[in-house]
Amino acid sequence: MRLTVSVIGAGGKMGTRITNNLAKHENYNLLFCEKSEQGIIGIEERGFEVTPTEKAVKQSDVVILAVPDTLLGTISKQIVPLLRTGSVLLTLDPAAAYADELALRDECTFVVAHPCHPSVFAEKFTPEEHADAFGGVAAKQDIVAALYKGEEEKYNIGEQVAIHMYAPVETCHRITVEQMAILEPTAAEVVTGSVAVVLKETLDQVVKMGVPEPAAKAFILGHVQICLSVVFRGTNPFSDACQVAIDYGLEEIYKSDWKNIFEKEALDKVITRMLN
Ligand SMILES: NC(=O)c1ccc[n+]([C@@H]2O[C@H](COP(=O)([O-])OP(=O)(O)OC[C@H]3O[C@@H](n4cnc5c(N)ncnc54)[C@H](O)[C@@H]3O)[C@@H](O)[C@H]2O)c1
Question: Is 8 in the pocket of ligand 1 (CB under 6 A)?
Fold first, then answer.
């Protein structure tokens, strides 16, 4: 089935990535919508042309909102009334849907799809796969998708477009919007992102204390891999002394009630902050 797909924000970071992938598919009539001068120049430099948003949305089977999350409420209020009956609105992050900030319409279907990014344990064979940490270029990744509101049959269209726009995709995991919000921001950003920052601050700290940077970097990044491997894959157990040091770190670094960040109030708080 040939589908007309509009990408709003087609010149942004995600807009560029996903339109590069969707443009490879002959069954999509792809329309690029963008507001900023820089974004428009980028689209034209890639050899595409920009279509006025209203004209594009009115003829689209699928409209993708690749705009900043802080603008999703306002922009969806402008776009949703223009959608064709039976069309699909696809957003790339659960925050606005979770916070009930997306404008909705009974005759349309609303889908959210987010990339998992290539796993640290994924098999990678080529330099291009190794270089593709984000995914969507050469390295395989899984994605998650949720039907926020609307018809099951239309969800399948949204999911198929999501698989193509985040390609190469290994598996699309169907979850709910609430589950996606637990994964992002809480699991992915609040926890994993802050741990990554702590690791970089650890590197800076030991270098400040006199450890040569190349040695410190090799040591820390090597230990990131082996620690993840032991904890997630049970490759080889930590030594008894190592386990003592890990328990000491858990006690000293984390508040005993840190898992409160998974409570609904905490999730609401961080999403409100992100959307404002
Ligand atoms: N950047 C990432 O790593 C990443 C990863 C996964 C999901 N996402 C999600 O993707 C979405 C877009 O994020 P991004 O990082 O690409 O943002 P971005 O700021 O890079 O791009 C947004 C684009 O939207 C354009 N825009 C803004 N208002 C517009 C309007 N009214 N009409 C047309 N274009 C308009 C901007 O000019 C810009 O080019 C968000 O929902 C975000 O959560 C981002």
Answer: yes
Across 205-211, average pLDDT: 98
Instruction: State whether the beta carbon of 34 lies less than 6 angstroms from ligand 1.
Output: yes
> Measured from the CB, is residue 93 less than 6 Å from ligand 1?
yes
Q: 20: CA distance to ligand 1 center in Å?
A: 15
The span from the CA of 141 to the CA of 17, in Å, is: 14
76 CA to centre of ligand 1 in angstroms: 13
CA of 69 to the centre of ligand 1 (A): 7
Domain edges within the chain: 3-175, 182-275
pLDDT at residue 259 tops 90: yes
pLDDT bucket at 236, cuts 50 / 70 / 90: confident
CA-closest residue to ligand 1 atom 13: 68
Q: In the CATH hierarchy, which top-level class contains the domain 182-275?
A: mainly alpha
The architecture that CATH gives domain 3-175 is 3-Layer(aba) Sandwich (3.40)
Q: Which residues contact 156 (CB under 8 A, 6 or more apart)?
A: none
State yes or no: pLDDT of 238 exceeds 90: yes
pLDDT at 205 > cutoff 90: yes
**H-type alpha helices, 59-193:** 72-79, 95-98, 127-131, 152-165, 177-181
